[in-house]
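hey
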């Protein structure tokens, strides 16, 4: 895959706006401010294809990007407590519709901040993916913010938590700063869409 050919296609804010799926999709999911935009930009080797914000809750739409015959989908971040109730309901409806509308979702890249144990929302999302039979991997973001000792300790701790959940998927430490994990994530994506 030539990731340089990626381009922005469309954004949808409500479930009614979501167009039908006619191509394989790779979705990126995670809590607000976990680094989805940074991870996607790193994979596509672009600085600002996907908008990056230091403010949580900024992505409130489902954003579609096209590369050849594959769509990459930036899902809105979950778990941002300051969203008004009306927005939380819209978000839940949008996500339910996205995952429940028979789309050709080949892979979900589930992001978890490596510096912390998974949040209640992270655990809920991982359980949802597992129970509904979605292929997914876990990308542990912000790995560069840990020193070697902290890195190893957190990797062991998180691997243990996922094992307790009976989640048997690749767990990939990732850094959008130094590129750790980029090639592994790309390899898995390509296996799913080729």
């Amino acid at each position: 895959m030539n990731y340089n050919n990626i381009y922005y296609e469309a954004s949808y804010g409500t479930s009614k706006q979501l167009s039908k799926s006619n191509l394989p999709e790779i979705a990126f999911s995670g809590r607000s401010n976990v680094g989805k935009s940074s991870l996607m930009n790193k994979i596509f080797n672009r600085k600002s294809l996907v908008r990056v914000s230091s403010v949580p809750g900024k992505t409130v739409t489902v954003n579609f990007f096209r590369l050849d015959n594959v769509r990459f989908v930036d899902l809105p971040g979950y778990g941002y407590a300051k969203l008004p109730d009306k927005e939380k309901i819209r978000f839940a409806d949008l996500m339910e519709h996205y995952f429940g509308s028979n789309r050709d979702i080949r892979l979900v890249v589930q992001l978890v901040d490596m510096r912390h144990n998974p949040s209640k929302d992270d655990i809920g999302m991982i359980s949802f993916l597992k129970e509904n039979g979605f292929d997914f991997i876990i990308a542990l973001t912000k790995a560069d913010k840990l020193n070697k000792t902290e890195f190893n300790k957190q990797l062991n701790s998180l691997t243990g938590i996922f094992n307790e959940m009976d989640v048997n998927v690749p767990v990939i430490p990732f850094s959008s700063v130094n590129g750790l994990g980029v090639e592994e994530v790309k390899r898995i994506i390509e296996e799913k869409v080729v």
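Confidence is low (pLDDT under 50) at residues 53-58. The helical segments are 36-43, 85-100, 120-131, 148-164, 182-193.
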